Amino acid sequence: MTALRQHRPRKRFGQHFLHDRRVVERIVAAIDPSAGDRLLEIGPGEGALTAALAGRAGHLFLIEIDRDLAARLEGQYDPRQVTVQTGDALRVDLRALPAPLRVVGNLPYNVSTPLLFHLLSQADRILDMHFMLQREVVDRMVAQPSSPEYGRLSVTVQHRCRAERLFTVASGAFRPPPRVESAIVRLVPRPPAELAGVDEVRFAAVVTRAFSHRRKTLRNALAPAVDAAALERLGIDPGLRPENLSFAEYRRIAAECTPDVTDLQ
Questions:
Q1: How confident is the model at residue 1 (pLDDT cuts 50, 70, 90)?
Q2: What is the DSSP letter of 81?
Q3: Cβ(161)–Cβ(185) under 8 Å?
């Protein structure tokens, strides 16, 4: 396998290439891939993580938006071992890939949140996810209720997955160095039985509605879809604010609210 020449980072893709071998080794150790695994790597870039994963996973799927990098990676690997797709990860349809998948990647910071929501909507096809993200984003993902970082992202991620922050990565591990610190997060989708009976559209509408009015109390933020009496029946204080509730409490509210809550976002 021929080593990739250094590629000039392109700002429009938010490219920051991981080059620290010790960090790569820590990420691979956290993923702990085996010969039976099917992995999807998002944004492989120059292939630092790809090279470490390709020899250990059963099959590795790559999706890379940069056509030059995709072509170079495609020329490096046996297609029986590594499949390269050129395209935008925000449009990836996991139904076109064999399940279950293990998903990994150094996600571009400029699209990390919409990409996370896109993948969470297909979490039923995913075994686990390991991502490098801006540290502040990871802090929000794992935040607990009533903490400053807790918000819509926290509720949505924790509703669909068990989230664990693994370790931080200094900016010097990348070329060029980003202006922020990064962190590795592990996401394990919750089993279907745990989500049984949850109307995902209604749940998303309630959470979006609540955090669009996060300075208000719940009785005002969620009116008229859920009134104070309904919240009290659920054992939830209507005087609390959106950031005070756990994802489980939002599930209960979604089951109680009126069907037209989706029109109130």
A1: very low
A2: T
A3: no
Q: What type of residue is 85?
A: Q
Task: Let me know if residue 129 belongs to a domain.
Answer: yes
**Would you tell me how many other CB atoms lie within 10 Å of the CB of residue 138?**
25
SS3 state of residue 79: coil
Of the candidates 107, 97, 45, 105, which has an alpha carbon nearest to the alpha carbon of residue 76?
Answer: 45
Tracing tokens 């300075």 back to the chain, one arrives at 215
Place of tokens 């279907």: 192
Q: Mind giving me the DSSP string for 92-123?
A: --GGGS-SSEEEEEE--GGGHHHHHHHHHTTG
At 145-174, the pLDDT tens digits run 999 999 999 999 999 999 999 999 998 888
d(CA 108, CA 128): 19
Q: What is the pTM of this model?
A: 0.90
Cβ(49)–Cβ(75) under 8 Å? no
CATH code, 72:
3.40.50.150
Residues 187, 204, 93, 87: is their CA dihedral positive or negative?
Answer: negative
The residues, ordered by sequence, that sit 6+ positions from 61 with a Cβ below 8 Å of its Cβ are 38, 39, 40, 41, 82, 83, 85, 97, 101
Is 16 inside any structural domain?
Answer: yes
